[in-house]
Amino acid sequence: MRVFSASLATETNTFGPMPTSLASFRDRGYFKPGEHPDHPTLFTGPLWAARLRGKEAGWTLIEGTSAGAQPSGITTRHAYETLREEILADLRAALPVDIVLLGLHGAMVADGYDDCEGDIITRVREIVGPGVVVGAELDPHCHISPAMREGADFLVTFKEYPHTDVVERGLDLVDLCVAKVEGKIRPVHAIVDTEMIVKIRTPVEPARSFVDRIKAMEGRDGVLSISIGHGFQWGDVPDMGTRVLVYTDNDPGKAQALARKLADELNALRDALSTPMPDIEEALDRAMETSGTVILADSADNPGGGAAGDSTFILKRLIERGIAPAAVGPMWDPVAVRIACDAGVGATLALRIGGKISPASGMPIDLVCTVKAIQPNMQMTGLTGTPMAMGDCVLVESQGVEIVLTTLRNQAMGTDVFTNLGCDLAAKKIIVVKSSQHFYASFSKVTQNVIYVSAPGAVACDITTLPYRNIRRPKWPLDA
Question: Is the backbone of residue 217 left (phi > 0), alpha (psi -120 to 50) or beta?
Answer without folding.
Answer: alpha
